[in-house]
Amino acid sequence: MEINGVEIPKGSNRFIEMDVARLPSGTLIQMPIHVFRAKEEGPCILLSGGLHGDEVNGIEAVRRVVESKMLKKLLKGTVIALPIINVYGFIHFSRDVPDGKDVNRSFPGNPEGSLASIVAWQITHHLLPHIDYGIDFHTGGASRTNFPQIRFAKEDELGQKVAERFNAPFTLNSGLISGSLRAAAKDLGKSVIVFEGGESLRLDEKSIMASIRGIENVLASEGMIDKKIRFKKSIYMIDSSWVRADASGMFVFKKTAGQKVKQNEIIGYVHSPYNTYRVKVASPIDGYIIGHNNFPLVHKGDALFHIGMVE
Ligand SMILES: [Zn+2]
């Protein structure tokens, strides 16, 4: 196996720094990658975080897995661990690269294109050809929090199998978005599934631990690490939808991510700060709150609750 000109023989681990491009100051931005290879043949799995640079829970989960003993002596196969895909977003505390483009809408990428497209191309060109599948770690964006959940596309059989092995508290069927890492992987005959947990720029221990447990479960079910699989029945969502604010004001939630809700149940309120009105927020369906807005001030039409529908 060779990545970015570095040879990684079986039975060895390597730390590779892939050049991306320079900052206006001239400082070179690199994308550091850890590669762990066992002597014995086995699957090649990508673990990535920070595709959105401010989604720090995934970065922390991948960092802790790299720090732990689990990958250092794999029994078989290969793990490519990439804590931060979008280093530009990370240093700017931002989801996107500095020109405002989303790397996760810029796949498969282009080495001569915009910065987001250059970052995407590094992954498509250097890493995707090696992998069998990947797990990409995200959080809710823009003050929205997500209950720990794994997402796969229903047309992706391998992705579904990996999602089941991962065994997150919630499992969601979620369609492929054009220009995303998942869609680029699918075009190459690979599979990438997405974990979502917590909120951008806020560490959430529950989500980080669910990520690590999921990685352990996947690696243990492949026989790549010697670890007992911890299986707890995941709640499977067949569909999901957002409840939006009927009025502008102060948003107070009464139910939170992870909780079960009934159709028409009051799950929050939007208050006028002067008590001139109060609008109830009700769940349109029976289901579970898979995510919600954590920002206390909302405009009419803002997304408040993401509700998952079970079978
Ligand atoms: Zn994200």
List the helices and strands and how they pair.
Layout: E1 2-3, E2 6-7, E3 13-22, E4 28-37, E5 44-49, H1 56-67, E6 78-82, H2 87-91, H3 115-127, E7 133-140, E8 144-152, H4 157-166, E9 170-173, H5 181-187, E10 191-199, H6 205-221, E11 235-244, E12 249-253, E13 260-261, E14 266-271, E15 278-282, E16 287-293, E17 297-298, E18 303-310
Helix pairs in contact: 1-6
This protein binds zinc ion (ZN).
Zinc ion (ZN) is lined by residues 52, 55, 138, 141.
Fold and architecture overview:
With 311 residues, the chain is of the alpha+beta class. It has two domains: 2-221, 3-Layer(aba) Sandwich (Aminopeptidase), CATH 3.40.630; 239-310, OB fold (Dihydrolipoamide Acetyltransferase, E2P). The chain has helices at residues 56-67, 87-91, 115-127, 157-166, 181-187, 205-221; strands at residues 2-3, 6-7, 13-22, 28-37, 44-49, 78-82, 133-140, 144-152, 170-173, 191-199, 235-244, 249-253, 260-261, 266-271, 278-282, 287-293, 297-298, 303-310. Helix 1 packs across helix 6 (205-221). The model has no long low-confidence stretch (mean pLDDT 96). Zinc ion binds next to loops.
